[in-house]
Amino acid sequence: MNQKELEKMLRDQLARHDWWYMMSDDNRYYTAGQTSWTKINETKEKLTQLGMTRNEIAEIHNEFAPDEKQLEIFAGNANAES
To answer: What is the DSSP string of 33-74?
Structure first.
């Protein structure tokens, strides 16, 4: 997959993700949320390998995440560890 396809995939994954799965009393929803989150992180890693910066990925993430789940955007070196 190329970068554009992976960006679309990430947006689709984030749009469908249950951001509050960890609060579910039903293990099926919790497990589904964990699986979804793992796939999201795999897609983010593939985009990083293609040269996309953490800030660029965080901007996409933040389009869909509730306020409590927003990622920080760093000034300067976007790929530096926080």
So the answer is: HHHHHHHHHHHHHHHHHTT--HHHHHHHHHHHS-GGGPPPPP
Provide the residue-wise pLDDT of the chain in tens; the chain has 82 residues. 999 999 999 999 999 999 999 999 999 999 999 999 999 999 999 999 999 999 999 999 999 999 999 999 988 654 544 4
Exposure on the CB side of residue 13, measured as CA atoms within 13 A: 21
Domain extent listing, the chain: 3-69
pLDDT at position 78 is: 46
CA 12 vs CA 43, 49, 53: distances in Å: 11, 20, 19
Return the structure tokens found at 38. Answer: 């793992």
Residues 6+ apart with CB under 8 A from 43: 6, 9, 10, 13
